[in-house]
Amino acid sequence: MKKEFIKILAFVLLFTFGGALSVYAFTTGSGYSSFNELFASEDAADYTIKTTDIGSDTTILALHGGGIERGTSELVEALNGYGKYNTYLFEGRKTTDNQSLFLRAIKFDEPKAVSLVKDSDYTVSVIGAAGDDEVTYIGGQNKLLAELLKLHLINKGYRVQTLSLPDRIAGVMDSNIVNKNKEFSGGYQLGGVQIAVSKGLRDKFVADPNVLNDYADSINAALTKSWPVAASALENKHDKNVEKFFEKLFSKHNFNKKVDKIIKKGANTPKGLLKNIEATD
């Protein structure tokens, strides 16, 4: 009864404040609070967990795959095809009501996913957003990687918006599994990137493999061509032998100021952003 009430409340809010909340993929309200709760409440035959661990430094997640948020699994599987990433998919397999399997990213504690993320330097999570238009919403704590992904997609003709608090799917909270990866260069946790894809674009992924592969190519290019250059540039901007300087440079406050300064320069291409990283002290 309590879960049904939450569902009804979510739909009331959606229709009351539709203009402000249309980006959010309403499923089962707040969803489950833990994987153990989901495991105890749902039939194990109604969902699958797929992991590919190739020892990569990058893991890509589909937390709401299969019938939960259609099209997210397809994108992660396409990226898995490059053979360069660890991937994780939690997929709903019910004939109806796959939304009952929804487990929010800030509550997602399924052990295999937690283990993959913990051992990864970089993480990307693909989730769904509402809306029949074709738009991608990018967030997460790793704002530089998010900006590179955004620019690669925009330069391929996709519409992309950057999210931050208070947007519910901004992906910036410490509790979001995508942000629980390794520390960068041993001193600062960059966190990950959350890509929320609208229903309209996800439906197109499923219907048209060419669009899916083109979109995946853009993400792959950002992760394998642009991001290694950016990460190397950031690492080279400090003297690893000077501990106090390292701590100062890579403290959360100072690092975020540096990142914001780079992004505010307003690069229009991935190459432009990389140049801004190199030029920023």
Range of helix content: 40-55%
Mean pLDDT: 86
3D shape: globular
Low-confidence stretches: 1-22, 24-29
How does this model look, in words?
- With 281 residues, the protein is of the alpha/beta class.
- It is globular, with a radius of gyration of 19 Å.
- Strand 2, helix 4 (72-80) and strand 3 (86-92) form a beta-alpha-beta unit.
- Helix content is 43%, strand content 15%.
- It starts with a helix and ends with a helix.
- Helix 4 packs across helix 8, helix 7 crosses helix 8 and helix 8 (209-235) packs parallel to helix 11 (270-279).
- Strands 1-3-2-4-7-5-6 form a seven-stranded mixed sheet, with helices on both faces.
- It has a single domain, classed as Aminopeptidase (3-Layer(aba) Sandwich), CATH 3.40.630.100.
- The chain contains eleven helices and seven strands.
Per-chain topology:
Elements: H1 2-16, H2 18-21, H3 35-41, E1 47-52, E2 58-66, H4 72-80, E3 86-92, H5 111-118, E4 122-129, E5 136-139, H6 143-154, E6 160-162, E7 193-198, H7 199-207, H8 209-235, H9 243-249, H10 252-264, H11 270-279
Parallel strand pairs: 2-3, 2-4, 4-7, 5-6
Antiparallel strand pairs: 1-3, 5-7
Helix pairs in contact: 4-8, 6-8, 7-8, 8-11
How do you describe this structure in short?
By secondary structure, the protein is α/β, with parallel strands linked by helices.
